Amino acid sequence: MTARVMVIDDSMLVRRQVSAALKTPGYLVTEAVDGVDALEKLAGLTDTKLIVCDVNMPRMNGIELLERLSAQGSAVPVVMLTTEGQPELIQRARSLGAKGWIVKPFKPEFLVATAAKLAPLGA
Amino acid sequence: MRVILLNERRAERDAMVRALPQDSYRVEAVGDETAALAAIAREAPQVVVFSAPSKGGQDLARRLRGGENAAEAYLLAIVEATPANKELSNLISAGVHDFMRRPFADVELLERVRAPERLLRWSRSVSKPFAFDFSAALDVTTLRSWRNLGQLVAEDLSEMAGSPFSVSQGYPAHLGADAACASIPMSLAGDQLELRLSIVADTQATKWVRETLLGDSSAQDSAMRDALRELANTAGGSLKRAALSESITLTTGIPRDDSTARFPGKHLCWSLKLEGGSGCLAVVGEVRSHTNQRISAAQLTEGMVLAHDIRSEGGVLIVPAGSRLTATSANRLAAMLGPRYFLEVAPAA
Amino acid sequence: MKSISPKNQPDFELMDHHLMDVAVELFAAYDVPIEHCQPPSEEGLGQETYCMSSIGYVGNGVKGVLILAATRAAAEAWTSAAGGLECDLVDTVGEFSNMLLGRLKGRLLREGIPISLATPMTVIGDGLRISISPGASSWQFFEGPGWHLGTRLDAAFEPDFQRETTPAAPAEAGDAILF
Questions:
Q1: B118, B134, B245: residue with CB nearest C170
Q2: Cα-based angle C45, C48, C54 (whole degrees, multiple of 5)
Q3: Euclidean distance between the first and final Cα of chain C, in Å?
């Protein structure tokens, strides 16, 4: 059994690191480069079980994406993966429905554990 | 400072030119009003010194000030030793700022031409429509997080790399102008400052990036540069989080490829050496002043940083100061606020 | 030159303490060592006061003025250290008061007392004096090489003034928080 995770980050390196971390236990990973790209891809991927999303991105940042997903009534859990650590920003994301916040550079095992909790394989 | 000297008395005019040091003043000396107006139209002067005729001095002053480019010029009139009644008050009413009586010494001319430098500086500040903080503002270089930047970045990069870095202050001498470089801008809009963090990699370090971070020793240059940008992003995050502990909130921009042509020598630099000698990264921090702009909401674009809160009429916070605009938020604010709403922003980094 | 520092006003004492530090720091940046000292006379700088620069500030629930008083020798020394000319004395004293309050601003920001500054106003003349402040007020004096300077910090606190709470510690690299 597998589950699809979308990773959204303008850095290819981060997308690669997240993919590597999540593919190992068996997740299927789709990549997007910013919020606009993510919305377009999510519209066509109805089996996304988890979104891992950066905050600072061009065109549409992670907080703006959360606002859009919330407005759309999306039930896909979102975990922010970012260099930001400002408590107000974390609270803002939480109030918009984010389920988690991971600060880069991240520990792969934390990311995998988070994915296992929010989008368990085989569920 | 550009000074226009209008004096029909040639000898006196020549002496005035000699009295003003060339390294401080660009003086254009003319003998009649037509030439003076043409000189003003060519390039705005900061100071206009003119010989005021005993009759019609105030009219001349008005014509000189009325010329395009002279609206903010400082006018200094030269008058005779005993000016006629009301001549001085008429000159002042016409917009003359100061006057000198003949005969005058070189040093007096110099002092009176220097005086407006202070006034001009302050008048530029106070003429802006915003209540401004004139302070020397925050000295970023006194922040603990700034002084320890090299160590902070090394710790986070070590976490990312899975191997430790040793840190020393100074720019690695062997890094050439063509070394790979990425930087991230960080704005402190309220203080009109921009910090820029750069990561520079030597050849060994770029090899390490390919092999260790990308897991592909033959990864393309574009991938290596992407990784370097992410290292700059990580460095920016390190500083940002550390600055938060000192109650300073920085707004990070988007990391970009950059050039080492700007440095070394003028900035704070650290060398980070990978364990085992497999390469060296330089971390460079610079602080720049950045004059904010006052623009219409219709002119907002991606990358600009808000210098103040945007609130609704009822005082509800819409967007906080320090927010970096994306295309999405810029368009949204433009639509919400309209072209008649003006706001202060730090320019896009 | 009396200092009036109300009892149980630790915030004012904190500000004053930081002012002493930043004064030493500022001059050190120009390679001019100064030391905190007793008032040179009962009247502070007394008749030797030649320049006074005042700069207002306002924060959330606090406002006041910083005054910098200098002897002529001090003003000349600072002007020289800053690379200016004789006619720049007024400007220099104004700029130093600006820089001093700017540094204090940075310190106070980290203490939860953010302030905004006004434009300095400087006067020169012999034997300058200034009125007593109605609120908290503290003179400090410093000795430099051959000169003295005085600072007076005035502050009026609103009854409900509170230092802004230090924000919660930011998340660290590697932290993972699940809501």
A1: B245
A2: 65
A3: 58
Q: How far apart are the first and last CA of chain A?
A: 8
Q: pLDDT (tens digit, 9 = 90+) per residue, A54-68?
A: 999 999 999 999 999
CA of C42 to nearest chain B CA: how many angstroms apart?
32
Question: Vertex B124, ends B120 and B126: CA angle to 5°?
Answer: 115
Residue, of B72 and B103, whose pLDDT is higher: B103
Radius of gyration of chain B measured on its C-alpha atoms = 28
Amino acid identity, position C168: A
**R_g of chain C, CA atoms, integer Å:** 18
- Distance from the Cα of A120 to chain C's closest Cα (Å) equals 15
3-state secondary structure of B54: coil
Are B329 and B319 in contact, with CB atoms under 8 Å apart? yes
Q: How far is A78 from chain B (nearest CA, A)?
A: 20
Token pair, residue C132, equals 């007593």
Which residues of B make CB contacts under 8 Å with C?
A: 111, 114, 118, 122, 125-126, 133-139, 142, 155-156, 159, 234, 237-238, 241, 244-248
Number of Cβ atoms within 10 Å of the Cβ of C72? 15
Query: Which residue ranges make up each domain of chain A?
Result: 4-118
Residue type at B318?
Answer: I
Task: Judge whether A55 and A62 are in contact, CB under 8 Å.
Answer: yes
Tell me B348's DSSP state: P
Query: In one letter, which amino acid is C158?
Result: E
Q: Please name the residue that has the structure tokens 């602080």.
A: B287
Distance in angstroms (rounded) separating the CA atoms of residues C28 and B233? 35
C28 vs C36, higher pLDDT: C36
- Residue B144's nearest CA partner among C104, C17, C166, C107 is C107
Answer yes or no: do A104 and C173 touch at CB < 8 A: yes
Rounded Cα distance between C48 and C128, Å, is 8
- In this prediction, residue B22 carries a pLDDT of 85
Quick check: B213 and A57 CB within 8 A? no
Q: CA-CA distance, C110 to B242, in Å (whole number)?
A: 13
> What domains does chain C contain, in order, with CATH numbers?
10-130 (3.40.1550.10)
A56–B230: do the CB atoms touch at under 8 Å? no
Buried b (16+ CB within 10 A) or exposed e, B190-201: bbbbbbbbbbbb
Mean pLDDT on B318-337: 90
**Chain C residue with minimum CA distance to A81:** C176
Amino acid occupying residue B246: E
Q: Does residue A44 belong to the interface with chain B, where contact is any CB pair within 8 Å?
A: no
Question: Which one, of B250, B287, B237, lies nearest residue B267 by Cα?
Answer: B287
Domains of chain B: 2-126 (3.40.50.2300), 140-289 (3.40.1550.10), 293-346 (3.90.105.10)
Q: Quote the pTM value.
A: 0.61
Task: Give yes or no for residue A19 having a pLDDT over 50.
Answer: yes
Query: Does residue A86 have a pLDDT over 60?
Result: yes
Superfamily name with CATH number, domain A4-118: Response regulator (3.40.50.2300)
- φ, ψ for residue B207 (rounded to 5)? -65, -40
% of residues, chain A, pLDDT over 70:
99
- Whether the CB of A99 is below 8 Å from some CB of chain C: the reply is yes
Which range among A16-20, B225-229, B312-316, C105-109 shows the weakest confidence by mean pLDDT?
A: B312-316
- C-alpha B93/C-alpha C143 separation (Å) is 47
User: Mean pLDDT for chain A?
Assistant: 92
Question: Locate tokens 């209540």: which residue?
Answer: B131
